[in-house]
Amino acid sequence: MSDMTTNPPTTSSPALLPQRPRLLSPRGWLAVLTAILVVAVLVPVLNLLVPAGNPLHLSDYLVGLVGKIMCYAICALAMDLIWGYTGILSLGHGLFFALGGYAMGMYLMRQIGRDGNYQSDLPDFMVFLDWKTLPWHWALSDSFWFQMAMVLVMPGLLAYVFGFFAFRSRIKGVYFSIITQALTYAAMLLFFRNETGFGGNNGFTDFKRILGISATAPSTRMTLFVITGLVLVGFYLMAKWIVASKFGRVLQAIRDAESRVMFTGYDPLAYKLGIWVLSALMCGVAGALYVPQVGIINPGEMSPAASIEIAIWAAVGGRATLIGPIVGAFFVNGAKSWFTQVFPEFWLYFLGALFIAVTLFLPDGIVGLFKSKKGEKQS
């Protein structure tokens, strides 16, 4: 009888699951750290500590301009999440921006107190309209934390209700864009009316204090600038994390082939509604940071043109890149600031020509142009 030898059982190595990509490369983290140091250290030093006559001094005007553009960049980043990665073009994100701004503006108006022109506890526009008491929706407007909650609740709730019915009805494409534009236009007309209690055509302005501190003090303006820069960096990192996650991959699948996503068992409604509400919240935060730095909020921020500009920033910088819309916001608004000073009558023509040129010759935006050149050098 021959000896039967048994081979030892073979142990199969466990299947290697695909690793989640890194949030940022080492060079990317270095760029983020550099941006934080510039915003939180270099700019405050050059503005507050370097004398005005020094060539290295950063003027208050430049700091305010960059702070305003950073607020716009947050909106462009929010647009990229909903348009670049989900394929939903919104022409109404200016509404969410304005709602966050109005929530902050209500608190700032209450902070004026009796320092207004009419020396009344009511805001000046209410005294002018012969109002005797605050309307019901101004009841807790003197509470900073309540109004900060409203910065998120107002745009978030509106976005949820609108998005739920729109996405459940499977409205998409140009029809969705038109409806969002109609929504922001209707809100603009509503806020123009004096009886709504939001300042009518003039809106809110002439702010005095924030948290009891002078709103125009250099230290206050610099604090708002630093907070805005840090929020922008934080939202960028959050967006990178979302895009790299399973949630983000489903969003991109919805953008490319929504019907196939439904056949694989995913519910596009939940994903589209989630990213839609998140983008609205980001715009609301941007609006709240914008108002104390610029010093005014009025219904003009809800105009369809304002929402179209947000889409232009994302397109010019490069959709589905995250950094592209930020670049686009700085490029377009920086050019706008220069053109409106040097050639004010030609600014709108320049903006239209820029958008047409990007659409025809740079479909991937400014960032896409640099990526293509980098690829050519490596090949």
Task: Tell me briefly what this model is.
Helices cover 67% and strands 2% of the residues. By secondary structure, it is an all-alpha fold.
Helices and strands, in order, run as HHHHHHEEEHHHEHHHH
Summed up, the domain count is 1
- SS strand fraction: under 5%
User: What is the tally of helical segments?
Assistant: 13
Given helix and strand content, the structural type is mainly alpha
How many beta-strand runs?
4
Terminal Cα span: 67 Å
Helix % is: 55-70%
Bulk shape = globular
Strand sequence of the main sheet, in spatial order?
Answer: 1-4
Largest sheet, if any?
Answer: 2 strands, antiparallel
Low-confidence segments, ≥5 residues, pLDDT <50? 1-6, 11-15
The overall pLDDT average reads 90
Radius of gyration: 25 Å
Structure in words:
The structure is a single chain. The chain starts with 25 loop residues before the first helix and ends with a helix. Helix content is 67%, strand content 2%. The strands form 2 sheets. A two-stranded antiparallel ribbon has the order 1-4. Strands 2-3 form a two-stranded antiparallel ribbon. The longest helix has 27 residues, at 218-244. It has helices at 26-49, 60-84, 93-112, 124-128, 144-168, 173-192, 218-244, 246-263, 268-294, 304-317, 323-342, 347-361, 365-378, and strands spanning 204-205, 209-210, 213-214, 296-297. Helix 3 packs antiparallel against helix 5 and helix 10 packs parallel to helix 13 (365-378). The protein contains 13 helices and 4 strands. It has one domain (26-49, 57-304). The chain is globular, with a radius of gyration of 25 Å. It is mostly helical.
